Every structure is written in C-alpha cells, then in structure tokens.
C-alpha cells in the first residue's frame, strides 16, 4: 500500500478511498448515456476504418479469427480494470492502481507513458483529420489542423459534460456507419442487389485460397494492427472520477465489450468479406470504401471519409481529455509539476490540458514539415505504449487479488470471471504481440524507442526522488485556478 489513507469497513478490513475523499475535486458531469457511448466509441477508430485494409491483405479472412481472439483478451483486460474501478473509482485509474499495488515508480512510468501515448496519437489524428478535409475542399492542411485543435481544446475547457456530449455524437456517427454497412451487406447477400449481388456468398470466406490464405504466420503478424485497433478501449477507466454513478454505469459499460467486438469487428468483417473478395483489399485503402466501390455504390466513399474524419477527431478529443487528467494525477502524487494540480472553476485541469494541446500543435507543424515518416511509425509506437497501460492494469489486478486473499482489502463488487487465469492469459498474449513486433521490421522501430523512453523516465524519477523523498504520495489538492 502507498501512503494513501484508507478507511476501515465494519469487519476491520481496509477499504480504498472513494473518489470523493481522495482529493480529486472533479465534477461528476458524465452520465450513463455518455459513458456508454464513450465505451463503445473507444473501441472503434481509424484502426478499423483504415488499418483493417492492410490487415486483410496480410491475413485474408483469418483476420476475423484474430479480431475475435484479441477481442476476448481485451474483455479480460477490461474486466480486470472493472474490478479495480469498483474498488476505487478515480480519474487517475490504472496509473493510480499501478502506484498503489506495484509501487510509485510503476505509477510514474504508467502515467507519463499513457500521457505520451495520447499526445502522439492526438498529433497524428488531428493531422489525419486535416488530410481528410482535402477530399471536399482544397484548403491548406495546417489550417484545418489548427482549427480542429483550437475547437477541441476550447470544448475541453468548457466542461466535462460537453466533452462527453461531443464523444457521444462522434460515437453515434461511427456506430451508425458500421451498422449501415452490415445491413447493406446483408441485403446484398439475401436480395442480391448491387454489382456484387451475383457473386456475394458466405463461401467467399474460404473459397479464395482458404480461410488462412497466407498461413498461420500471416495471421499472427497482423496482431499488432489488431491490437492497435482496440487502443483507447481503456479510456472509460479515466472517466471514473467524473462519472455521476460509477458503481452502476462502469460495470454496464464494460460488460458491453463482447457484443461491441462481436458486432463492430467480427460481424462487420464477416459481412464485408462475404460480399467482396479479400484479394481486392490493400494497405492505405479503407475496407469500407473499397466495399462500397465493389458494390457500385460510389457515394459510400464520401460517407466513409466523413466517418473517418469523425473517428480522427474523436481520438484527438479523447487525447485532450485524458492527458490533462493524467498530468494532474501525476502532480497530485508528486510525480509531476505542482502547477498541473490546479483546477478551473468548472473542475477542468486547465494547465495540464493546455500544455498537452500546445505539444499537439507543435506536432502538427512537425507533420507538416515531414509528413511521410511521422505516420510510418506512429502505429507501432502507440501500440507499445498503449499496451503498457494494459500490462499495468493486469498486474495491478493480480496484486489487488493477493491483498484481498491476505485479508488486507475487501473483495471488489465486480469480480473478473476466471481471474487470475484470464489475467495471466492476457499478459501472455500481450507478450506474444511484443515478440511479433520485434520480428516485424516496420514495427521494430517502436521497440527501439522504448529503451530511450525508459531511460528518460528512470533519470527523471531519480531526480524527483532526490528532491522529494515522498514522491508517489498523493497530496490533497483541491486548488482552483
């Protein structure tokens, strides 16, 4: 246990402090409707709308199996997170749990790594959104990126409720697009309309070179792309400190993970690959756009471009939200500049959000100057840094369970089924993905960056530790800026 103060239950067991008593100071402005859509939208992004094209070309129909297995692992991770959230729902989420159950340094690394993950993701997504705008208008890319960044930054400073509302509608657009594609493909299969009606059949899943046309190895090498598509699903944990009723809303949101993956990933891919041969898909082309083109529905390209635009803006919006909260959590525990602890009158971490947004603006300039290389490595870097958060969630849950077994803490009201075996399985799967990234020459660059980032964190932590021996101890900061 850290220096966090805990309460005692009637039976004498320690109980983790609630968000209300941990000095967070946030406003609980996120309702059930918004939390549910944030949870749904968090698992749907450009990784599906764009990245799946490359994955299909590498694995063929067997990509469906890759998404199904990886989706099961994501469910194990989310149930582990849910068990911790019901123990203590705080905005610091997995960084706070890593700090409490593994140690201050683990919390330090997790908080700063997750912050960097969202800064890098925000940089690429807002720049990508600017490129999508050129589909309709011939305007400078930097201008669109600037406007989008300012709008999302301003929205995040108004209130957490507005953030939740923006995410709600972004998610609605993505969900509607996928359901629409599934229904259109179902119509092609059953009624036979469109240019693909004569050839569409479920048998296309195994008639075009078999279900594993590139072999099992080809399927395994897509796991990095698959896991990247699921990044941000853990964002619902960061909203815990600002949810109106976290004990009720968060378990419901987490339990929707299986059907979200079944419908939006597995279901959508089954329908698309039953209508269009997997051989027509390629890297850099959205499978949704290609499917519309093959069916002779050209208007679909414009629709998908709008959907991908909203997906990119949604990711950047989430980055603005989470970076400010993560910086404040680090500052409250003495692991970041104290100035980040300040909240605005509306309960917004103003300085942390502003600092992160400023870095995103700098990244827009970098992408404008060197657009090619910046995008080539972001998927790999985002995947490795995002998976670190998942590793910490699983390790923290395992430590939490040991504390419960020793009688030091009460059991969570939302126990993960099958744990600890499911948690160990998930950790093993993530380890496999990291090994495969090392084999992939493109993804390997991210692994080269990891030691450098680790060195920066180790040096920074030792400097902070020398200046403040109590680093990792949460301050009761309710300051207003």
UniProtKB/TrEMBL annotation:
<feature type="transmembrane region" description="Helical">
    <location>
        <begin position="374"/>
        <end position="395"/>
    </location>
</feature>
<keyword id="KW-0812">Transmembrane</keyword>
<feature type="transmembrane region" description="Helical">
    <location>
        <begin position="301"/>
        <end position="322"/>
    </location>
</feature>
<dbReference type="InterPro" id="IPR004841">
    <property type="entry name" value="AA-permease/SLC12A_dom"/>
</dbReference>
<feature type="transmembrane region" description="Helical">
    <location>
        <begin position="343"/>
        <end position="368"/>
    </location>
</feature>
<feature type="transmembrane region" description="Helical">
    <location>
        <begin position="261"/>
        <end position="281"/>
    </location>
</feature>
<feature type="transmembrane region" description="Helical">
    <location>
        <begin position="62"/>
        <end position="81"/>
    </location>
</feature>
<dbReference type="Pfam" id="PF00324">
    <property type="entry name" value="AA_permease"/>
</dbReference>
<feature type="domain" description="Amino acid permease/ SLC12A">
    <location>
        <begin position="35"/>
        <end position="464"/>
    </location>
</feature>
<feature type="transmembrane region" description="Helical">
    <location>
        <begin position="141"/>
        <end position="163"/>
    </location>
</feature>
<feature type="transmembrane region" description="Helical">
    <location>
        <begin position="445"/>
        <end position="464"/>
    </location>
</feature>
<feature type="transmembrane region" description="Helical">
    <location>
        <begin position="37"/>
        <end position="56"/>
    </location>
</feature>
<dbReference type="InterPro" id="IPR004840">
    <property type="entry name" value="Amino_acid_permease_CS"/>
</dbReference>
<feature type="transmembrane region" description="Helical">
    <location>
        <begin position="216"/>
        <end position="240"/>
    </location>
</feature>
<dbReference type="GO" id="GO:0005886">
    <property type="term" value="C:plasma membrane"/>
</dbReference>
<feature type="transmembrane region" description="Helical">
    <location>
        <begin position="416"/>
        <end position="439"/>
    </location>
</feature>
<feature type="region of interest" description="Disordered">
    <location>
        <begin position="1"/>
        <end position="25"/>
    </location>
</feature>
<comment type="similarity">
    <text>Belongs to the amino acid-polyamine-organocation (APC) superfamily. Amino acid transporter (AAT) (TC 2.A.3.1) family.</text>
</comment>
<keyword id="KW-0029">Amino-acid transport</keyword>
<dbReference type="GO" id="GO:0006865">
    <property type="term" value="P:amino acid transport"/>
</dbReference>
<keyword id="KW-0472">Membrane</keyword>
<feature type="transmembrane region" description="Helical">
    <location>
        <begin position="101"/>
        <end position="121"/>
    </location>
</feature>
<keyword id="KW-0813">Transport</keyword>
<dbReference type="GO" id="GO:0055085">
    <property type="term" value="P:transmembrane transport"/>
</dbReference>
<keyword id="KW-1133">Transmembrane helix</keyword>
<feature type="transmembrane region" description="Helical">
    <location>
        <begin position="175"/>
        <end position="196"/>
    </location>
</feature>
<protein>
    <submittedName>
        <fullName>Amino acid permease</fullName>
    </submittedName>
</protein>
<keyword id="KW-1003">Cell membrane</keyword>
């Amino acid at each position: 246990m850290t220096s966090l103060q805990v309460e005692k239950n009637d039976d004498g067991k320690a109980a983790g402090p609630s968000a209300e008593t941990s000095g967070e100071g946030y406003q609980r402005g996120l309702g059930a409707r918004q939390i549910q859509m944030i949870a749904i939208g968090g698992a749907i992004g450009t990784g599906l709308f764009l990245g799946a094209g490359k994955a299909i070309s590498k694995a063929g129909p067997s990509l469906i199996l890759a998404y199904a297995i990886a989706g099961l692992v994501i469910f194990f991770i989310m149930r582990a997170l849910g068990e911790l959230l019901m123990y203590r729902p705080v905005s610091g989420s997995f960084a706070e749990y890593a700090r409490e159950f593994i140690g201050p340094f683990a919390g330090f690394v997790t908080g700063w790594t997750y912050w960097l993950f969202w800064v890098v993701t925000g940089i690429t997504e807002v720049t990508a959104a600017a490129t999508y705008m050129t589909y309709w208008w011939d305007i400078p890319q930097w201008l669109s990126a600037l406007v989008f960044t300012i709008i999302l930054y301003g929205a995040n400073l108004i209130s957490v409720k507005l953030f939740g509302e923006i995410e709600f509608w972004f998610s609605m657009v993505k969900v509607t697009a996928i359901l629409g594609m599934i229904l259109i493909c179902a119509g092609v299969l059953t009624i036979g309309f469109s240019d693909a009606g004569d050839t569409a059949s479920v048998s296309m899943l195994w008639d075009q070179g078999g279900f594993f046309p590139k072999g099992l190895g080809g399927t395994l090498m897509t796991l990095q792309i698959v896991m990247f598509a699921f990044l941000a699903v853990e964002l619902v944990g960061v909203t815990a400190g600002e949810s109106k009723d976290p004990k009720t809303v968060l378990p419901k949101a987490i339990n929707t993970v299986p059907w979200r993956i079944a419908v939006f990933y597995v279901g959508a891919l089954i329908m698309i690959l039953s209508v269009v041969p997997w051989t027509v898909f390629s890297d850099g082309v959205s499978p949704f756009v290609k499917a519309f083109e093959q069916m002779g529905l050209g208007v679909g390209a414009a629709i998908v471009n709008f959907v991908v635009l909203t997906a990119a803006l949604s990711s950047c919006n989430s980055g603005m939200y989470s970076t400010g909260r993560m910086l404040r959590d680090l500052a409250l525990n003495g692991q970041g500049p104290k100035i980040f602890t300040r909240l605005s009158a509306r309960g917004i971490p103003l300085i942390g959000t502003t600092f992160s947004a400023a870095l995103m603006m700098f990244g827009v300039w970098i992408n404008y100057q060197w657009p090619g290389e910046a995008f080539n490595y972001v998927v790999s870097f985002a995947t490795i840094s995002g998976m670190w958060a998942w590793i910490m969630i699983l390790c923290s849950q395992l430590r939490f369970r040991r504390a419960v077994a020793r009688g030091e803490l009460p059991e969570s009201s939302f126990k993960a089924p099958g744990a600890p075996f499911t948690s160990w399985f998930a950790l093993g799967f993530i380890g496999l993905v990291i090994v495969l990234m090392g084999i992939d020459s493109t993804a390997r660059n991210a692994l080269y960056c990891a030691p450098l980032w680790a060195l920066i964190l180790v040096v920074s932590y030792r400097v902070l530790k020398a200046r403040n021996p109590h680093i990792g101890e949460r301050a009761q900061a309710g300051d207003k800026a």
